[in-house]
Amino acid sequence: MPLPDQRLSPSVPVPVPGEPPVRQASVWPGIGLAAVAVVVAMVVNRFVPAFSPAVIAVLSGAVLANLVAVAASSSGPAGADNTGAGRAGVVWERFRPGLAFVSRRVLRVAIALLGLQIAMPQVLALGWQTLVIVVAATGVTFAVTPLIGRRLGLSPGTSLLVATGVSICGAAAVAAMRESADGTDDDDAAAALSVVVLYGSAAIVAVPALAGLLGLSPAQLGVWTGAAVHEVAQVAAIGAASGVLAAAVTVKLARVILLAPLVALTAVRARRPDTAPQTRREGRRPPVMPLFVAAFLVMVAVRSTGWVPEPVTEAVPQVTNVLMAAALFGLGTGIDVRKLIKGGRAVLLGAIATGLIAAVSLTGVAVLL
């Protein structure tokens, strides 16, 4: 039996003439489950800070959903209605509307609030050399990875989301692009999220080791870490252990800003008639910039004015972490591990993309710093 369907837009009940109206399922069970997952993710993060609550939530969502799938499939059709295993799939259905809600609505709020963590004066203070490194590494990786994915025979959606996650800011970028771009589905997102977790975690060990072998200065290590590593939490883990925390995280946030223009660029390309047959058939065109991405830019502008009170700037990262963890838990429940095991080409693409952004940024560090 396949994994319970986790489409992000639950179907709306259609009333039947002569029968009482069908009540739409409540979102609260799914929201409650996501809240429990967030608490667990926060607790685990306290003991393993290298893994952000968002990444832990993705993993827990995938584990839970696949356990339900195994339990449901073990009962078989004949026992689906009278065994505990068979009831697992039925009970899971109660959570779907709430998980769809957090995967979409809560995600949009979290992405918008992410902008309040970025102050442009701090980013510009990095200097033109660092900014050139960030833009070059991100741009080259984002542009080249889909081309390599096509050569490997991967779908355009998988290639796009892997490129987004590796080049910009990990799981949050994957979720934002998944929400914005047509032609991507849950399998594409699952592959990209797995790549981010796998290679971003490996970077926590590999980057400091390679920096030592290459004789990089602390300033060079800070820039390379921020320009090459996927997740903010992974960057912070390397920075804290190496004494370059502030510089590495600031460089990383400069990459996060690029989320908005790259999402907008993707949307503009999707509006072209020759690249959007599906949306043309449906009589609609994707927006140039989704509203929540525009809100992200507005939040960056507000934070850059310096008018945001300090208590707010201190609280925003925690609030954003909670909302992002809830959203990515919902997205994680759409990951089918069995499909990932069979789809080794996405893992290979992730390795190539990770090596590409590391090589481009390291070259920039060696030449410009």
Shape: globular
Total number of β-strand segments? 0
**Range of helix content:** over 70%
- Average pLDDT reading: 84
**Computed Rg:** 21 Å
Portion in beta strands = under 5%
Helix tally?
A: 18
Helix/strand order, N-terminal first: HHHHHHHHHHHHHHHHHH
Number of domains: 1
Amino- and carboxy-terminal Cα gap: 55 Å
Q: Could you list the spans in which at least 5 consecutive residues all have pLDDT below 50?
A: 1-14, 276-283
Largest sheet properties:
none
Structural class: mainly alpha
Transmembrane segments: 27-44, 50-72, 130-148, 160-177, 189-216, 228-247, 253-270, 291-309, 315-335, 347-368
Protein name: YeiH family protein
Keywords: Cell membrane, Membrane, Transmembrane, Transmembrane helix
Subcellular location: Cell membrane
Structure description:
With 369 residues, the protein is mostly helical. The protein has helices spanning 28-47, 53-75, 84-93, 96-114, 120-124, 128-151, 156-169, 171-180, 186-214, 218-228, 232-242, 245-257, 259-270, 277-281, 291-304, 310-332, 337-342, 344-368.
Gist of the model:
The chain is mainly alpha-helical and 369 residues long. The chain is built from 18 helices and no strands.
Summary keywords:
369 residues, mainly alpha, 18 helices, globular
Question: What's the topology here?
Answer:
Blueprint: H1 28-47, H2 53-75, H3 84-93, H4 96-114, H5 120-124, H6 128-151, H7 156-169, H8 171-180, H9 186-214, H10 218-228, H11 232-242, H12 245-257, H13 259-270, H14 277-281, H15 291-304, H16 310-332, H17 337-342, H18 344-368
Helix pairs in contact: 1-2, 1-4, 1-16, 2-3, 2-16, 4-8, 4-15, 4-16, 6-7, 6-10, 6-12, 6-18, 7-8, 7-9, 7-18, 8-9, 9-11, 9-18, 10-11, 10-12, 10-18, 11-12, 13-15
